[in-house]
């Protein structure tokens, strides 16, 4: 899998904020959140388990494991997680959210064009004309496949009669 | 034996209908297409194309998904040989000797050997599934709740053993997956759990937005870190057919690879990566002249290719006969069955014979199609390698969006997918594997239900798990496995395997 990504941050800095500490903290936090959010769920007994029995058991497990992982991380300083590539992370997420926001309002075609144009910004080096052409071709193909062909119940283009 | 062939004939009748043949073909083509493109592994490919199959009938849908799965596996080997880029982890070893052969001007022979070894492995494994699936299922029909709990525990433990990296973290990922699976309405009491008042979560987190976010979107974000360009050197393909000497050397290697792949693939947690590595090292040990490996040894292509194909198909056995998915791709298959309203489990073979036998037969047909697709038509895939990633990933993002939306026509699912994309990216950054999480998510609700029912039957006495022979034996195996992983000697070996992978 490591072949996919040649650009991981150099593994020099040994830190207490390493993979283990952070992922352990994440698990422990989810465990705590679950215990708190599920505090009103009735646990019942082993023979008559309520809706809270298994969640409580599970969250305690998550909390305990999370703490174990975090503690090993603290005791053995290791590699800090590689730098987060904010640009693809944010741009890809934004493209999906914009797609969701436009799909029912402005129709599939415009949602696709908007999402593709936004996604094009995920890497440096803009090639606007190329991206727009690709977006239009893709939009036309997807409208044909999903609306004409498969009958997806969304408008293809914005409708102004409403 | 008559019974076996009767069933296979029945399956062929199902798989040979024009619609199912077309679906199998479409699955193979789409799978190869995406598999050829580096960076998208079989799990991501199947996750992304899954919604396309929801319009189909269940049998057709599974036939197509299976085609996508082994097609993408296959596409990965092609790029491994031609441009030294393994499309997926299971074809990493194929790079070693496959690319070496290509550089010596024997790319065609390497491709042909890989294709024929895979076809052989696929044929053997198809019969294995047809023979072992019903046998295992008939035993599994006697399972009761405690046995199911135990077999699921075994499946999860095995997933931990075979996951990359830290054991404890993999266990934590499983628990996290089970937790995500609990969100929604409790089946027995219809009380809301962890929905935080969000309507979207009343029916639980959808399996599709979760898997497409974790595997599809997160993978794209991760791939884009290094930019969207890539330059590749190309090798020319001249003669396709291997020499007689190639055949003589490759045949025994392919047979050994197949056996190893079947064996390792059937185990819970199995898949295609470990068999291919194991087969390669076995060949290297058996070879009279090990130094030829890495310099274009035919066995180094035939054995791992046979093994990964056999492994990829053998892992259908626990999925189809027990309803327990042994790896993430099979978890996707189980999820797809549930979307179609089919409860996975040992009853499928009897209740849905068309689905089971049709799927099995289609695998063999699909393998045949792949040989045709990959040998005479190889130039298409080579051309495809030149499509830049920057055109590809926006299309994939949009397809993910449409796919998730089309499932229930709910925009909230698209938003949920975006959330899990970010979450999956974060997990990768923390070196946590998303695959165990997905298994936990799929098995969690089943595990809770059977756990509750077991203890209800005994009035809260947990010793039932140890007094029933079936559940006891599964639990013993789980404990042994877990203990083995924690032992230093085995630990080293496992790290070696998973490091290489």
Record the SSE blueprint.
The complex is a heterodimer of chains A (162) and B (501).
Chain A (H helix, E strand, L loop, with lengths): L13 E2 L3 H19 L15 H23 L2 E2 L6 H34 L8 H22 L13
Antiparallel strand pairs in A: 1-2
Helix pairs in contact in A: 1-2, 3-4
Chain B lengths: L1 H14 L2 H19 L5 H8 L8 H26 L8 H49 L4 H18 L4 H16 L1 E2 L6 E2 L13 H18 L19 H23 L6 H14 L12 H16 L1 H7 L5 H12 L8 H4 L1 H22 L3 H7 L4 H20 L2 H19 L4 H24 L6 H4 L1 H18 L1 H13 L1
Helix pairs in contact in B: 1-15, 2-4, 2-15, 3-4, 3-8, 4-5, 4-11, 4-13, 4-15, 5-9, 5-11, 5-12, 5-15, 6-7, 6-19, 6-21, 7-19, 8-17, 8-18, 8-19, 9-10, 9-11, 10-11, 13-19, 17-18
Main beta sheet of chain B: strand number and arrangement? 2 strands, antiparallel
Total tally of structural domains of chain A: 2
- Give the strand order of the largest sheet of chain B, numbering strands 1, 2, ... along the chain: 1-2
Can you count the helices of chain B?
22
Number of strands of chain B: 2
* Rg of chain B: 22 Å
For the secondary structure, the number of strands of chain A is: 2
Count structural domains of chain B: 1
Tell me the helix content of chain A. 55-70%
Name the assembly state. heterodimer
Gap between N and C termini of chain A: 51 Å
Strand content of chain A: under 5%
Which residue ranges of chain B are poorly predicted, with pLDDT under 50 across at least 5 consecutive positions?
none
Integer average pLDDT of chain B: 83
Largest interface: A-B, 76 and 73 residues
* Spatial shape of chain A: flat
Unreliable sequence segments of chain A? 1-12
């Amino acid at each position: 899998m490591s072949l996919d990504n040649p650009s991981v941050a150099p593994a020099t800095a040994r830190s207490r904020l390493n993979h283990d500490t952070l992922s352990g903290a994440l698990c422990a936090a989810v465990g705590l959140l679950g215990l708190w959010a599920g505090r009103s769920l009735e646990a019942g007994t082993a023979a008559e388990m309520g809706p809270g029995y298994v969640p409580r058991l599970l969250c305690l497990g998550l909390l305990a494991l999370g703490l174990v992982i975090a503690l090993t991380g603290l005791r053995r300083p290791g590699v800090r997680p590689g730098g987060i590539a904010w640009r693809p992370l944010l741009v890809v997420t934004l493209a999906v959210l914009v797609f969701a926001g436009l799909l029912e309002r402005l129709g599939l075609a415009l949602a696709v064009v908007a999402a593709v144009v936004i996604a094009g910004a995920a890497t440096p080096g803009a090639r606007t004309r190329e991206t727009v052409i690709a977006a239009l071709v893709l939009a036309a193909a997807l409208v044909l496949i999903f609306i004409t062909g498969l009958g997806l119940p969304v408008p293809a283009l914005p409708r102004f009669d409403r | 034996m008559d019974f076996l062939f009767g069933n296979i004939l029945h399956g062929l009748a199902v798989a040979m209908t024009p619609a199912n043949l077309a679906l199998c073909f479409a699955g193979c083509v789409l799978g190869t297409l995406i598999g050829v493109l580096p960076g998208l592994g079989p799990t991501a490919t199947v996750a992304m194309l899954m919604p396309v199959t929801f319009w189909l009938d269940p049998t057709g849908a599974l036939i197509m998904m299976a085609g996508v799965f082994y097609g993408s596996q296959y596409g990965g080997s092609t790029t491994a040989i031609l441009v030294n880029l393994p499309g997926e982890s299971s074809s990493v070893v194929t790079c070693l000797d496959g690319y070496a052969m290509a550089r010596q001007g024997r790319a065609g022979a390497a491709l042909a050997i890989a294709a024929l070894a895979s076809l052989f492995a696929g044929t053997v494994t198809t019969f294995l599934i047809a023979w072992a699936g019903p046998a295992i299922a008939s035993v599994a029909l006697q399972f009761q709740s405690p046995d199911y709990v135990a077999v699921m525990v075994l499946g999860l433990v095995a997933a931990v053993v075979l996951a990359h990296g830290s054991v404890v973290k993999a266990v934590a990922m499983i628990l996290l997956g089970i937790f995500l699976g609990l969100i929604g309405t409790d089946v027995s009491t219809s009380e809301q759990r962890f929905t935080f008042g969000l309507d979207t979560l009343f029916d639980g987190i959808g399996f599709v937005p979760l898997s497409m976010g974790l595997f599809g979107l997160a993978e794209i974000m991760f791939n884009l870190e290094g930019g969207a360009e890539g330059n590749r050197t190309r090798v020319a393909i001249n003669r396709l057919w291997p020499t007689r000497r190639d055949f003589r050397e490759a045949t025994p290697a392919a047979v050994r690879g197949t056996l190893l792949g079947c064996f390792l693939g059937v185990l819970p947690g199995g898949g295609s990566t470990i068999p291919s590595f194991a087969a390669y090292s076995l060949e290297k040990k058996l070879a009279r002249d090990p130094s030829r490996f890495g310099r274009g040894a035919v066995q180094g292509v035939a054995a791992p290719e046979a093994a990964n194909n056999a492994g990829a198909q053998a892992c259908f056995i626990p999925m189809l006969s027990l309803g327990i998915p042994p790896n993430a791709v099979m978890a996707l298959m189980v999820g797809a069955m549930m979307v179609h309203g089919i409860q996975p489990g040992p009853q499928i073979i009897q209740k849905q014979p068309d689905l089971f036998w049709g799927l099995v037969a289609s695998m063999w047909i699909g393998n045949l199609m792949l040989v045709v697709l990959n040998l005479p038509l190889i130039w298409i895939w080579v051309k495809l390698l030149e499509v830049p990633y920057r055109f590809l990933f926006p299309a994939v993002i949009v397809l993910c969006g449409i796919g998730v939306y089309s499932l229930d026509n709910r925009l909230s699912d698209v938003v949920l997918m975006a959330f899990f994309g970010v979450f999956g990216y974060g997990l990768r950054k923390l070196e946590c594997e998303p695959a165990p999480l997905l298994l936990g998510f799929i098995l969690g609700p089943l595990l809770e239900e059977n756990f509750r029912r077991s203890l209800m039957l005994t009035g809260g006495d947990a010793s039932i798990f140890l007094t029933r022979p079936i559940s006891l034996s599964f639990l013993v195996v789980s404990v042994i496995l877990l203990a083995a992983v924690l032992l230093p000697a085995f630990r080293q070996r496992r790290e070696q395997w998973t490091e290489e992978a």
